[in-house]
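Please check the following.

. . .
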Amino acid sequence: MIAQSNPSIKNQAPGTIIYTGTYTDVPLSMVLYKYNSEDWTKETIGDLSSIPDDAMIKWLNITGLSHTKVIQELGTRFSIDPLILEDIVNVSQYSKMQSDDLLFSVWKMIYMKKGQIEHEHVSLLLIDNWVISFQENEGDVFDSVRSRLEKNQGILRTMKGDYLYFALIDSIIDHYFDTLSLLNRKFDSYEAAIYDQKKIAIDSLYPLRKELAQLKSATFPMKTAIPRVLHGKQTIISEEVQPYFQDAHDNLMQVSEQILTIRELASSLHDRQLSELSHQMNTIMTTLTIFSAVFIPLSFLAGLFGTNFRQMPGIDSPQAFSLFLAACAGVAAFMLIFFKRKKWF
């Protein structure tokens, strides 16, 4: 399901918190992970005021962007700019990353769910030792991060919140590769079908090209956003973690190159499909033209000999009809041989 923008956001003052997506019936869910190198906890909370502000690294995952009051309460607690809160619930906001006294980014999470490609508006905040993720609907790409937290795999629980922030970004980018792999396989199957001259509907490539365009709009803005933050005056990403963000940027560049490659393939297949359709139409028109050209003189002969003349050569002969048919067959054969020698078909 792809969320569409809501026209009710128009003509509103900047900083107005109005959810513009279609997941309006998703129940609110707030899951809090707290961890350090020795321990971790996971709990579902119902009230933001019940969260103690201790030294442990915290990951708060909020599902259900239509519950704007909770997002407003969160903004009040952490003194978050209303413009950031607006971007969190505005699903038409393009992908971006910005840093000041906090690190904020907007992503388009694209992943497989029940055999379909899902699109979801996701925002990530890094404030001190807090990482807060906002998503529209249940289901996401963060299960690998949760598993590493729970099983104490890798260095995740020994690092600070900026590394957790990177891990979430890295999971989103990894699923871009999965989506690209799926699109590439589908384009390959269409390419094989087209080159085998199998009939394919003219609009069959459109959904795949649309998915590719949405993936492009999700990833291309981040190619410039991440380096701008890393090379800016930010202090929230430590020098120890900056190489990981650079690696995420490198992966985005690789995604971008694959998108351009598949996009060229898609355009080539579309052009080939149109060429095949044009060739089929030309073949049909050639056949119809040959039939028309052959029958035009035959129609003339039939019309001529069908007129009511009192005197006409051979009209009284018993073989007149047979000779007439032979003449028609001869004219048709002559025209077909002539067309063939001219290579008109």
